[in-house]
Amino acid sequence: MERTEGSPEIIIGLIDGPVAMDHPDLTTENIREIPGLWSGACTLTNSLACMHGTFVAGILSAKRGSDAPAICPNCTLLVRPIFTETSSGNWQMPSATPKELALAIADCIDAGAYLLNLSVALIQSSTQAERELQEVLDYAARCGVILVAAAGNQGSLGSTSITQHPWVIPVVAYDLHGRPIGQSNMGASIGRRGLGAPGEAITSLGTNGHPLTLNGTSAAAPFVTGIIALLWSESPSASAAEVKFAVAQSSSQKRTTVIPPLADAWAAHQALIKVHANR
User: Fold this and answer.
1) pLDDT at 183 over 60
2) CA-to-CA distance for 109 and 144, rounded, in angstroms?
3) Which of 12, 91, 124, 187 has a 20 to 30 Å separation from 26 between CA atoms?
4) pLDDT tens digits for 210-266?
5) What's the domain count of the chain?
């Protein structure tokens, strides 16, 4: 973050809730909308969908110096909403059907996204819908579009159709002491290919004029997405495979457990420089 604020050529697909586009701390000139069934801008600022989308957008695209992490404000953010704006008294990871998610992923890829942030859980699964989702994940791999996905907050052991896909980077939430939080899902594919990122007491943009502080893998995933966006901004000629390899190799820990290593942005930067030097 000291080296770059990102590049507009690096396009991040945010598959989430709508975003409060009028928030004064968002770099809205770098935010574009891909309309789905719902608008990319919030109509109900107190809705769970709007709060979640704005919170994650703030981690990635808020102005530097705001209350949010503001990792890559100069990157282009594509907002592709998949969550309905309904009020809810309980905060939980928003969910979507595999079919809805597959369509949103395809829309972002076709709109030119370099990488996608998926802070979303799946519901109402069916064999056909799962097949469609697998096909679009394969499509992302063929197109060189990196997918970063929240591992989930059920505290369970195992994988989903998203986190077990070999092209997806699953993300586990870590606490303030550098340890995975208990609610994060773990699993063989998560430990083998995933990463940990800050996911406790994360403060980002709220929708009511005050910052919002949350825990969980939804908050952790955009940290990894932001790392990748900054790496690509610094090395725009790098391929998706090279960037993905650099991020995965950023830790010296062996991948022998269900717990992924904590992401190391600077080590990933050094690894990517080495990859380029060996071309």
Assistant:
1) yes
2) 9
3) 91
4) 999 999 999 999 999 999 999 999 999 999 999 999 998 755 556 778 999 999 999
5) 1
Q: Which of 113, 124, 176, 178 is nearest to 148 (CA)?
A: 113
- Identify whether 119 is part of a domain: yes
The CA distance from 42 to 20, in Å, is 5
Kindly report the CATH number assigned to the domain that includes residue 81: 3.40.50.200
Q: Which domain holds residue 86?
A: 11-277
Domain assignment present for 4: no
Could you read off the pLDDT of 52-87 as tens digits, one per residue? Answer: 999 999 999 999 999 999 999 999 999 999 987 765
Give domain status of residue 112, yes or no: yes
Whether residue 5 is contained in a domain is answered as no
* Cα–Cα dist 34/42, whole Å: 13
